[in-house]
Amino acid sequence: MKQRVQLELFITILAIFGALGLVSTQNQPTRMETWETRQRAQAIQRGAALYQANCRSCHGVNGEGVSNLGPALNDALFFTTRLDEVHWTGTLDEYTENVIATGRVTPTRAFYAGDGQVAMNAWSQAYGGPLRPDEIRDLRAFVLNWRASALGEVQLAVLQITATPRAPGDPLQGRQIFLESGCASCHRIESVNEIQFPAPDLTHIATSAASRQPGVSASGYLRESFLIPNAYIVEGYSENSGCGGLLSYQQLEDLIAYLLTLK
Predict the structure, then answer these.
(1) pLDDT (tens digit per residue) in 6-17
(2) 190 and 103 within one domain
(3) Do 81 and 203 sit in the same domain of this protein?
(4) Domain of 12?
(5) In this structure, are 29 and 59 located in the same domain?
(6) How many other CB atoms sit within 10 Å of the CB of residue 184?
(7) What is the CA radius of gyration of the chain?
(8) 3-state SS assignment for residue 113
(9) What is the per-residue pLDDT for 191?
């Protein structure tokens, strides 16, 4: 009798575990889908922070592109025709990760002139850049997250995670930045610092900048000159190491706003 009770108890336990196993198996796809969604969201969030720190100066805060510094990424053409443009035979995921990691020696289009030597530096540590492989993948996830907004499927605001709003430049702040950040030690502005310096005179830079490069606005030219100092060399001056990277994004906007008042 005792053995029979034990046997029935054992069979009952097996049935319970069997049922639990069946439920677990049935729920496995849902759990995996939830886990993958969470992992992707976390990658996009990390990638957003990396983009804001490293990419927005050339590709824009919201991927809209910046003058001729870098093409738009939050753009239908990026998701529909870019691979054909560059004759890439793989997937857009592979292309995006590859370009971030290794950079581009030549620009995507002639309009994006780069610095005359490379169009985009390598960002992967394997190629001399600052980012780890996982950070490269996170950046790729963030850029490709723009697909739906670029193709008009959802509103852009839904996809922005850590993007900082683009504040208009403040000329008064920009003047202080010019005087205090080191610009005044190389560039002359009439009535501000009258001594001649080894870098181009900026007294009427708002006027001259508008005609330096065909098709490039004065603000675009000034931004490019700061970020890629040797993209355009003024006649009579030699190449220089420049000071790109010494200012925050907002400080650069303020400085450009000030320089645009110098007509």
Answers:
(1) 555 555 655 655
(2) no
(3) no
(4) 1-166
(5) yes
(6) 18
(7) 27
(8) coil
(9) 83
Total tally of structural domains belonging to the chain: 2
Distance (Å, rounded) from C-alpha 137 to C-alpha 124? 10
Helix axes 249-259, 171-180, angle to 10 degrees: 100
Tell me how far apart the alpha carbons of residues 134 and 130 are, in angstroms, rounded to a whole number: 12
- Shared-domain flag, residues 217 and 148: no
**Residue 115 predicted with pLDDT over 50:** no
Instruction: Supply the CATH number for residue 217's domain.
Output: 1.10.760.10
Which tens digits make up the pLDDT trace of 213-226? 777 788 888 877 77
How confident is the model over 185-224, as pLDDT tens digits? Answer: 888 888 887 766 778 888 899 998 888 877 778 888 887 7
The CB-side HSE value for 6 (13 A sphere, CA atoms) comes to 3
Taking the C-alpha atoms of residue 134 and residue 166, their distance in angstroms, rounded to an integer, is 28
159 pLDDT more than 50? no
Q: Is the pLDDT of residue 237 over 70?
A: yes
Q: What local confidence, expressed as pLDDT, does residue 135 receive?
A: 94
| pTM of the predicted structure, to 2 decimals | 0.53
Degrees (nearest 5) of the Cα angle 234, 178, 55? 75
For residues 41 and 148, state if they share a domain.
yes
- Contact predicate 260/218, CB 8 Å: yes
